[in-house]
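Recap for those who missed Tuesday's class. We walked through two folding examples back to back. For each one, the amino acid string is listed first and its predicted C-alpha cells come directly after. Nothing is annotated here on purpose, so try labeling regions yourself before you check the end of the notes.
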Amino acid sequence: MRLPAVLPLLLTLTAFILSLLCVFAGSKRGYIENADILTLNTSMLGRTVVSSSSSSSSPSSILSSLEGDIKSGINKVATDIAKDLNLHDFYSWHILDYCEGYYTPSAIENATSHPAKNVTKCSNETAFFHFDPTAVLQSELKTGINLTELKWPQAIEDAVDAVEIATNAMFVLYCIGIATAGVAVLGSVVGILAGGRLSALVNFMLAILVFLALSIASAIATVIMIKVTNAVNDHGSDIGVAAYKGTTFLGMTWAATVLMLLAAFAWVGECVVGRRKKST
C-alpha cells in the first residue's frame, strides 16, 4: 500500500463530488439552490410598463386595471406587479432544470431586510435542458397579457438562443468528466493498493482526461453565464428585469477542475518516485 497515493485519491474524489453537485443542483426544491448558472430577477417586471400604459392607444384591460390600483394607492408596491401578472420573483437556471419562487421577506433589500430565495417549484429534470425564459414567462402570464405588451426585449431571447448548442456541449462534457472521474477514483484505489509506475501513469492519464472535460465544461458555463447575464442587464433594466451570475456554481465547477489538475500533478510525482525506487 502506498500512502502518498491517498492524496490524489482525495483530490479526485472531491472533484467527483463537486461535479455531481454542479449537475444535480436545483434538481428538487431547496437542493443546493444557490448553485445555479444564473438567476433571473423578475420581481420588478412590468412596473414601468404599467405606469405608462395610460399613454398607450390600446392598453391591455388588465394592465390598465393594475395602473388604476397603483394610482389609487390600493396596497400596491412595485414588487406586487409581477405577482399580479402571475409571475414569480425569480427563476434560477440549473443544468438539468429551472426553479422558481419568491423573495422573502421582500424582493427589495434595505437596512433591515435582505431578500432570501423561497423556491416554490422546480421543473422536471431533463438531459440537455435549455432554459427559455421567454417561453416560461409567457406560459405563466395572466390570460390576455403578452410579453410584447411588457416590452420584453428580443435581445434577451437572441442571447439565450445563441447559447443553446453550448449548453448541450456543456452537459455532454460534464457527463464525460463525471464518468471519467468515477473511473479515476477506482483507479486511485488500485494505485494505493498495488502501487507501481504503471498504475500511476494510468491514473495520470485519467486525471488529465477529467481535467480537460471539466475545464472545457467550466469555460463554456462561464461564457454562457456572462453572455446571458449581460444581455438581460443591458436590455432588461428598462422593464425591471435583472440577472445575477451563479458565483457559487462557478466556484464549485472551477474548484473541481483545479483539484483534478492537482491530482494529475500528484500522479506525476508518484511516477517519478516509482522510477527512482526502481533505479536504486
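Example two. Treat it independently of the first, because the proteins are unrelated.
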Amino acid sequence: MTAPTLPTGYTITHTTPSVETYISLRTSTGLTPFSIEASTRGLPNTLFAVQILHKGEAVGTDPHPKKVGRITGDGGCFFSVTDICTHPSHRGQGLAKAVMAELTRWLEVEENVPKGAWVGLSADGQAGGLYRQFGFRETKEGFDSVGMARVM
C-alpha cells in the first residue's frame, strides 16, 4: 500500500511522543487520559510510533504533534495498534490514513512481526471503516473469540 499524500506543510516522523505530548493529545482528542506515571512506564515499551507534525513543528503555538499512532506488544506473538488520535483542528485531512499506512508498512515487514502473529486494536466510534481499509476486521467476523478489556 502506498502512503497517502499529506497536505502541504505536514511531515511524518517515526518517533515516540513525549509523556507531555502523549497526555495532551489523548486529552484533546477525547481519549481517556493516562496518568503521568502510567505514560512514563508505557511509552518506552513502544515498538514503533508515528507522529505527524505541521510545518516542521506543531501547529501555531501548540507544542504537540497533530496526529499520533503507536504499536505495542511482546515483539513476537501479540501486537496492538494504539493511540490513533488526531488533534481536532486537523481532522478531515487524511492524517489518520497516513498514520495507519505507516504503521501497516511496519507491521508487514516479517523482521518486525513474525508470520502468524496476532495484531489487534480497539476501534472507537466510526474508526472501524478506516481500520478495515488496512485489513482489520471485527473479531466476531471469523474468529472464535470476542474482544474483552478491563481497566485497572
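Answers for example two:
Residues 58-62 have pLDDT under 50 and may be disordered.
The two ends are 37 Å apart (CA to CA).
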